[in-house]
Each structure stands twice: as C-alpha cells, then as structure tokens.
Design brief:
Layout lengths: L1 E6 L6 H11 L3 E3 L3 H8 L17 H16 L2 E5 L5 H13 L4 E7 L2 H9 L9 H4 L2 H12 L4 E4 L5 H13 L1
Parallel strand pairs: 1-3, 1-4, 2-3, 4-5
Length: 175
C-alpha cells in the first residue's frame, strides 16, 4: 500500500498526468481528494464561508481516513492529484498517513510561469484564462520557493508532455 501524491499548481496537468500514471503502475487507482472537499461543500446549511475548502478543519483528516480506508479495502497504490500549497496542511496529511503506516511518494509537477500561463490560457476544461487557476500562480511560486520543492520529487513539465511526466513518475515509483 502506498500513495503517489501529485502536487502542483492548478492548471499544471495533475489530473491528466495522474490518469496516465495510474495506467503505468499495476494495481493502482486514482483518488482525487477534491471530491472530499466537494462533499463538504454539499453540506446544508453550508459550513462557514471560506475561499478554499482545504481551510475547513475536517478536510485534511477526511482525506487521510478516506485514503486509508480505500487502501485497506483494495491494497495497491492510490494516485492522488491534489494541490496542497499550505505547509501546515501538507504536514497534517503526511502525519496522518504516516500514523497509519502509509508511505507517500510526493511529486510536484512544475512548469515555468510562461508555460503555466499558456496552459491556463488554452485550457479547454475550465475555459481559457480561468481566474481560479490564475489566482494560484503566486501562492504556488511562494510555496515552491519556501518549502514545497524541498518536500517532493520535482518533475519539471515545462517541456514535457503529460505522458512523459507520467512515465518519469511511474519509473521513479516502480524503480
């Protein structure tokens, strides 16, 4: 049982890459922890207003517990594409998973600012120039410079296709 966490800013290609990684690692599944946030957003009446569901204290332990229960049920590897830019939140999730003896391989997909802006401008899923994605460019740069890149295996995707990035991750995980 292991987790392959694919981190990076919004629009860098985590979801696309995760699906490709899953195809390359035997007995693996994709678990997008954003679905845990969406479940919390569906609570009625709503939880206290926030700009990011990760700020809700239940989100982090629910991600840990959901991943743990899925792995207990299925075994194998969970590939988790999820942006986490707050060091405290990453530490909470990491400690929770470690407390259950679940190893995490943490990867960060990185692209230079021009490549990121071009990807966001040409995004056909959320639409071009998504304000949501653009607002995370600066927080990502700050996290990358202060803690994030030191905590992960960085895969520079500036000049890679998602398939090439996925292959690098899968080869790193499977040895």
């Amino acid at each position: 049982m292991t987790i392959v966490w694919i981190n990076g800013t919004h629009g860098v290609g985590k979801t696309t890459t995760a699906a490709l990684v899953q195809q390359l690692i035997p007995d693996s599944r994709v678990f997008d922890a954003e679905k845990v946030g969406e479940t919390l957003m569906d609570i009625s009446p709503g939880l206290p207003t926030t700009s990011n569901f990760q700020h809700w204290p239940p989100w982090r332990p629910l991600v840990v517990e959901t991943a743990r229960h899925v792995l207990d049920y299925t075994g194998g590897t969970l590939v988790m594409p999820m942006t986490v830019l707050y060091e405290q939140y990453w530490r909470e999730i990491g400690a929770g998973l470690a407390g259950h003896g679940i190893p995490v391989r943490h990867f960060v997909l990185h692209a230079d600012r021009d490549a990121l802006r071009a990807r966001i401008a040409g995004d056909t899923v959320t639409g071009p120039d998504s304000p949501f994605r653009l607002q995370y460019l600066e927080p990502y740069a700050e996290a990358a410079a202060t803690w994030l890149h030191a905590e992960a295996e960085v895969v520079d995707t500036t000049h890679l296709t998602p398939a090439q990035a996925a292959l690098r991750i899968a080869e790193s995980v499977t040895g």
